[in-house]
Amino acid sequence: MDFSVVAVAREDDSPVEEPLRVAVAADRLGYREVWAGEGPTWDSFVLATAIGRATERVALTAGPVPVSVRDAYTVARGAASVGALTGRPVGVALGTSSKRVVEGVHGRPRVRPAAVLEESAAAVRALLHGVEGEPVVPGSDFRRRLAPPGGPLTVAAFGDRAIGTAAAHADRMLLDVVSPEQVRALRARLDAAAARLGRTPPALAAWLPAAVDPGPESLAQVLGSIAGYLTVPGYREVFAEAGFSKAVELAASGADRGTLVRALPPEAATTLGLVGDLATVRARVADYAEAGLDEIALVPATAGDPAGERTLTALGPA
């Protein structure tokens, strides 16, 4: 199993500078790659640049960036800019994000998201592999002055059309907060999509919340990170089958995040993540590997464990 580290995944109450501390710890501990996620607080390319300047060797991936907000050239230019300023390989992750973010934060319409993802992935892949001196886009009078960023193209996927896009264009497909059972099913769908295209399947990675020997604060943070999935099709069934129907029903009724966290028992944190003592977490990693996952991108709990130091140290490269 390959491990990488997510410096920032989704919005929570952690200090805004915490992603830099997580990235510095990951670099010091020998992890090969850090993800700079994008959300209402952080621009992923700015954060990736700051991480690159604060660390020594770790490779960088920006995103997933929402394809309804950034055009393909802007994405490729952002990655090339990060690479030029940091001297590191820079990858890009693309995703459709949510209506809450695209329309509620950016004020952009989120229409035909699967089609836009397909169009963006094809265009970004071509732009990521261009060469200096050629037109920035076909037919343009402007010439490339920055080297290609050199990192992989990742596509965040869950539905069939997004999985098809990943199979067609990506070096890696990304899942977010999934159980081993979901991994097994999604791995099969990815392999089948790639086979139909006559293409080798891309690697399969997942962002997973992680907390080794968590205290109460870390556990609450992990539960908060998964509470938003209680109403999502494909996830609510996982929670219901695991015995957390009450929380699923509360979420369906519109209960707020705090109420949902209080309704979820500690065991819920292990349903979609790596939580517990080191032996428990390692056994869970083995479950994900057996299900077909190639890479775990650790989203370390930092509440009660600044920079996720305890978790990252326990799971770090030998």
Automatic annotation (TrEMBL):
Coiled coil: none
E.C. code: 1.-.-.-
Signal peptide: none
Oxidoreductase is among the record's keywords: yes
Record has Glycosyltransferase as a keyword: no
InterPro entries, alphabetized: F420-G6PD/mer, F420_Rv3093c, Luciferase-like_dom, Luciferase-like_sf
Molecular functions per Gene Ontology: oxidoreductase activity
Luciferase-like domain boundaries: 1-294
Alphabetized PANTHER family for the sequence: 5,10-METHYLENETETRAHYDROMETHANOPTERIN REDUCTASE, PTHR43244
Name the UniProt record assigns to this protein: LLM class F420-dependent oxidoreductase
